[in-house]
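Dear colleague,

Thank you for sharing your sequence with our group. We've completed the structure prediction you requested, and as agreed, I am returning the results in plain text so they can be pasted directly into your records. Please verify that the sequence below matches your submission; if there's any discrepancy, let me know and we will rerun it promptly.
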Amino acid sequence: MDKNKLSKYGKYLLQKFYFSNLKKTFTFISHFLHPMSRALLLCLCLKIFIISGVFAAPVERHETKCDTALIRTLILRASDSESDSAIFLYNQAIQIAEKCLASGGSKSFVKKVSQKQIRAKLNLGLIFYQRIDYTVAIKLFSEALQEAQSIGETLLIAESHFNIAEVYLEQSQFLDAMESYHLSLLGYEKINDDSGQFWCLAGMGIVQKQSGNYKDAELFYNKALQKARNSGMTYEEAICHNNLGNMHRKTGDFSKAMSSYEKAIEVFRKMNDDAAVSDCLNNIGNLYSDNHNPFRALEYYSQALKIAEKLKDEYRLIIRYKNMAGAYTELKDFENAGLFLDDALKLAEKSGDKSFLASCNMLYGKLHSVKNNHSIATAFFKKSADLYAETGVRPEQCEALIELAFSLLRENNIKEALKYALEAFGIAESTGSLKARLEASICLAECYEKDNNPTQAYAFLKSANMLNDSIYTAEKYRTIEEIEAGFARSQLKKENEVLSQNAILQKQAIRTQNIIMLLLGVSLAMGLALIWLIYKRKNEARRETGEIKQRSEEEIGRLSKDLLAKERELTSKTVFINQKNQLIEKLIRELDELKKTGASEQAIQHLQIQLKQELAPNAWKEFEIQFNEVHPDFQARLLNSFPDLTPAERRLCAFIRLDMNTREISSLSGQSIKSIEVARTRIRKKLGVPHEQNLTNFIALI
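Please find the predicted structure tokens below.
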């Protein structure tokens, strides 16, 4: 438990104890005190209680128990975590906030905690929204909305409405989505939030486009575009261009669609928004698919799919898999089409999105139709049309009905085919889609032809030709290609350069081949020569290395012999000096005896002084010369590492380095054994050698 929490909790228990037992305690003690002492004791207790903070306000005590900082920390950590960890952290924050709110508190305190709880629920809902778990997402968004309304937080109310609208849009509940977007827009307008207003207008445009109301969709998109331009929102402006491109594609204005995609993808690439780039590439692929160019469509679909797989975005993966399956179906590559379609269906079933399921069923229908399994294809097209009708996605419903009518015609079920073709034509006229009207007109012309009604067949065929000329013209194709070149100039330029050089390269193939063979021959000869030179140089280097090694070993051997000789010489001289000093010491002792016998004391003392003067210095000089030859750097290293040592102490260290004992050092230096022991103690202290460590071993390592 945190110390601050512990102290606050202890204070609370102390207060509770004092309040419950104060009367009993004071009554008990007062029996033993004088009345004046009782009054003084009461005043003293009250003063202690006030100073110690026992009498804290009840509300303040509750609010200190609720750790709002912990809730904020959990939310911040969750926002930087992977989805699974984020879910756990957001749930923790929500639980702590619920406990705090259940205990009550001041109005400002409750609002503060509620804001954090709402934020955690909104963020948690977005994670489930991205996982296509719309049931959990809308439950969290709805709870956040109710709580935001209870505290009157306009921004959070608007954000909750917007998130709910997004879920409704994905579930194709267009009326509910439109209402929620509108409520969100009102909230954002109230607080002058331009970004929020933009996204609401864009969402409403998408709803109208999905419903087939292209004029209303364009109206909302243009409002959103104006809002983005006025507010300097470049990214949002690009989103608008992408949405306008989708709408223009649906209405058959392909040049405008490509122009819009160009403007959008240029911004997305600059901002490194991979998801948005994937969407634009996918939309361009759709444009080529509509123009019956599956090869170019696959090129863009593949690029979009790679990005979606990298992002692990299941929502986008469903769309990419479906489109890849559609392109492969058109190319009659049924194996690849089936594989991609199976992947799309698995994710669509997981999401429970009827629009996705309807799209997958339509693709299965097209796949079986190409395989001439018309009865199976009809069943899939019928299911797709019904699902689109349930969701209210009218453009796609129209497409499914047209496919259903064609499939029924192939089964010679003319009456049913005519019924669905007329229904599709009605939807196409109401939505204003030229492309849908073209396909419906072609289908009706074929239906009436098989129904032996040439007049109606001719009328719809004529209408289809006019629509075809309006939509698919050489000028429009040229415009599309020019616009595409606008945002992919560098890549296309490289491709054109390669293509233009192919002819030249083919003409020069033989000459180039001969040149290459000649170069290969020269290169081979040079390579062999180089290998021979490297081999020769390597042998010479090996020989030189051997000679150098041999000379080095000989030199090392010679130096080792010299070193051993010098060590023997040093040892012999040391022994000699030691013996000489012992002899001199013996003579000095004998002279001491002579002094006692009555010999001329002054003469004897003079002789002793001369002998003592000759005892140490000369011996040390000879020893120092020999020692420095054998151990040339020892004195320098000793002086650098331990500059506090005196010359006498460094001299003693040299003796110790030769592993000489105290008596031998005494004999050689002319000092007493006691003096040497004292000096060794001082040296041990200056060198920092502990008592339990051997001094000789330490000095030997210097």
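Summary note from our side: The CA atoms of residues 148 and 302 lie 43 Å apart.

Kind regards,
the structure core
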